[in-house]
Amino acid sequence: MGNLLKVLTCTDLEQGPNFFLDFENAQPTESEKEIYNQVNVVLKDAEGILEDLQSYRGAGHEIREAIQHPADEKLQEKAWGAVVPLVGKLKKFYEFSQRLEAALRGLLGALTSTPYSPTQHLEREQALAKQFAEILHFTLRFDELKMTNPAIQNDFSYYRRTLSRMRINNVPAEGENEVNNELANRMSLFYAEATPMLKTLSDATTKFVSEAVALCCYSSSCCRRDLSKEYRSRFTNEETVSFCLRVMVGVIILYDHVHPVGAFAKTSKIDMKGCIKVLKDQPPNSVEGLLNALRYTTKHLNDETTSKQIKSMLQ
């Protein structure tokens, strides 16, 4: 219990990590390979999921036409025909979130196992640490795209309403077998969240709360330090800077959701002022989305325990 409390309160973070977390060149060691390969099977599909989500246009026109002309069977069929394949995509996104949750649990299990501390794990198992960062990077990108696409919830709501009406009228419904009622309920809860992928990861992380808190502390510290002038010169690809910025914000948001008092309190071991300053030192157009993520998707920013200075920095 003593060790658990120590990790939960991050009491071993006073000095911060003093190693370079190499996001560009980290390769799995023999001891990492089993977990690394399991997680990699999931992560290799992440970019395709983002591309499909980015190209998701919805069936708004067909749905509006069907609603405005309820007696026109052709328009009803056209709207249903447009929505069913889109719901298939939404199902794929949801199922990926479940795979990602399982992968994160395995990863956290490896990165928080005894006898090593979280900082020792990050230093020793940098390939796994990079995968943890890649999951957070994906999560922020997915939720950004979802938040700016109202068609997703509109399409799914129309699908459920129409399916319910078809059942009442005993009309066979194409697509019902693909998304049964139980799955539809779970998908509905998922897409009702403003940041559904973050919610999924938060739920998974809650099972590792104490260890994950420490892991987030170290990760944010590593990212912030990697972005300093001294370490930044080690990166060969400018995209790595964007990756680090997104991961830094991702771990802050995750920490804020799973820690009892959050990331913004004075007792937090995350240097919020330093992290916000790093973001504000970047070209404004490149980080406005990340600043908005801190403003609108964190849990404790508006708490009384958050200092006025931090609130002012994020205004």
UniProtKB/TrEMBL annotation:
GO terms for biological process: regulation of actin filament polymerization. Signal peptide: none annotated. Keywords: Lipoprotein, Membrane. It is a lipid-anchor. The keyword Lipoprotein applies. It is found in: Membrane. Coiled coil: none annotated. Residues 18-311 form the CYRIA/CYRIB Rac1 binding domain. It comes from the Eukaryota. One of its GO terms (molecular function) is small GTPase binding. InterPro entries: CYRI (IPR039789), CYRIA/CYRIB_Rac1-bd (IPR009828). One of its GO terms (cellular component) is membrane. Belongs to the CYRI family. PANTHER family: GH09096P. Interacts with RAC1 (GTP-bound form preferentially). This is CYFIP related Rac1 interactor B. It comes from Rhinopithecus bieti (Black snub-nosed monkey). The lineage of its organism: Eukaryota, Metazoa, Chordata, Craniata, Vertebrata.
